[in-house]
Design brief:
With 249 residues, the protein is α+β, with helices and mostly antiparallel strands. Helix content is 19%, strand content 29%. The longest helix has 17 residues. Keywords: ATP-binding, Ligase, Nucleotide-binding. Pfam families: BPL_C, BPL_LplA_LipB.
Length: 249
């Protein structure tokens, strides 16, 4: 793909096919690759999303890529990175196509209540973050009913618009995550844009926790750590750091 990389990205590695850009970039990070590396695949055959779910990544139908950033921040301070990345992609969609996106906790980007994009973030000790992103672009028949694409949303008519959009996405993510380079507290209002975009807050939700337990309540806030705060009918406020959220109403 012929693009000019915006800061902080300095190198683009493009492959026709791979198992997973996320797994590949972990290898690059462990081998000492510098921060700012971008790995883009035309096709993934073993793409994965949150909770180890398969992510369909067919050739020529999406942007399938992973990003390497190194940060001096402690691991406990990195939980909001997936949320901030979701905000950055939503902003890129608005800037490029005028699309109004929402975000389902923690980081599913929705257009008209259907999933357009997903994010997966892995920490690779001691200081590397691998940010995996999938965005459906030219997909005419998504693998699930609750998915969509830029093509189906009439945002693009051909893949000629994809390179410029990719540049916009990279610039937006780079700007949103610029504070990763410094070891100091996040701004107090850093998650306010996420709260405004959230389709989860204010809804009654069923949350299936990693243990298998189902928690029902109202999603009332996002913690500074990125955790979802759920208020139950018993009056408890539970902070959810991982789980599958279904909006009941």
């Amino acid at each position: 793909m012929d693009i000019i990389l915006p800061k902080p990205w300095h190198k683009l590695v493009e492959v026709s096919q791979t198992g997973s850009t996320q797994a590949d970039l972990v290898g690059h990070a462990q081998a000492g690759a510098q921060s700012g590396l971008v790995l883009l695949a035309h096709e993934q055959v073993q793409g994965r999303g949150r909770l180890e779910r398969a992510w369909e990544s067919p050739a020529g139908q999406g942007l399938w890529f992973s990003l390497l950033l190194r940060s001096p921040r402690a691991v406990a301070d990195l939980g909001i990175v997936p949320l901030l990345t979701a905000v950055a992609i939503a902003q890129a969609l608005a800037d490029e196509f005028g699309l109004s996106a929402s975000v389902k906790w923690p980081n599913d980007i929705l257009i008209n209540q259907k999933k357009l994009s997903g994010i997966l973030v892995n920490h690779c000790p001691p200081d590397a973050l691998i940010i995996g992103v999938g965005i459906n672009t030219m997909m005419s028949q998504p693998p699930i009913d609750m998915a969509t694409s830029l093509l189906l949303e009439d945002a693009i008519g051909s893949d000629q618009a994809v390179p410029h959009f990719f540049t916009t996405v990279l610039a937006s993510i780079g700007s949103m995550l610029s504070d990763l380079a410094v070891d100091q507290p996040w701004p107090l209002d850093v998650l306010d844009p996420y709260r405004r975009l959230s389709s989860t807050l204010g809804s009654t939700v069923d949350v299936t926790l990693p243990s298998g337990q189902v928690l029902t309540g109202q999603a009332v806030d996002i913690e500074p750590t990125g955790a979802l705060v759920v208020s139950t009918s018993a009056g408890q406020r539970v902070c959810v750091t991982a789980g599958d959220v279904v909006q009941v109403r």
